[in-house]
């Protein structure tokens, strides 16, 4: 699938800076300002159009180019106008946005950790930090890399740009998809489409319970997207179930899957995944509910007798 990397070339950034400051521009104006050949400007404009930054419209004979009304385009404009002294094309090109997106969404304190959440090599990450630290864009606080508060609007831009690309991928997968959860380039969607291991999309949550002995009839399906996950296992499916809207409709089958496969669950792996997603408390809730046979009342969990009744239908021992 196209456009899954968060990056802008130096030429794209230069053109965006010019449009942000000037408003409506022509190809010839961009050629004058950038000193690029017309063919180069047209390729750059076409790429920015695909990334949702610009719109082209005809005023008289020549076409004019302006920023689109997308949130990431307008936030970029505000960033350029607010920090007009910063040549962003020198700092945000190449792998910079990929690295910044990772540290925006997670507490990452080493190049190795950042590498595990991006497609950027550790030497490239080191070069990005060397470049960004010179202008004060990146700092390290409490053992984690962060974007400096002075560049808060840059963080807003990155979040909006990433969300736009995630939505674009989701819509390419299924036109009626809705993103329920996202973190950097990982996200979970709900849609009426059901395709397993298609590109970087994997069935997950209740939609994947059939793989583990609990077959459900569902109108919609849940898919998890990640550029790095080649396949997902039982522990991933359980952890993802806590990232989608929780109700008795989703918790009851989760409890059935848990009980049917409890001897096969890698508890250490599940704990690590849940900690990564910040859902460890929900794993504790499942344990409390099952250990007390439902006497520990927990919101969104079914009554114990209802679970027992469903367990009999599926041949699950409770």
TrEMBL record:
Q: Which residues form the HTH marR-type domain?
A: 8-56
- Which Gene Ontology terms cover its molecular function? DNA-binding transcription factor activity
Q: Identify the residues that the record assigns to the HVO-2833 C-terminal domain, covering every copy.
A: 200-316
Matches recorded under Gene3D superfamilies: Winged helix-like DNA-binding domain superfamily/Winged helix DNA-binding domain
Name under which the protein is recorded: HTH marR-type domain-containing protein
Q: Which organism is it from?
A: Candidatus Nitrosotenuis uzonensis
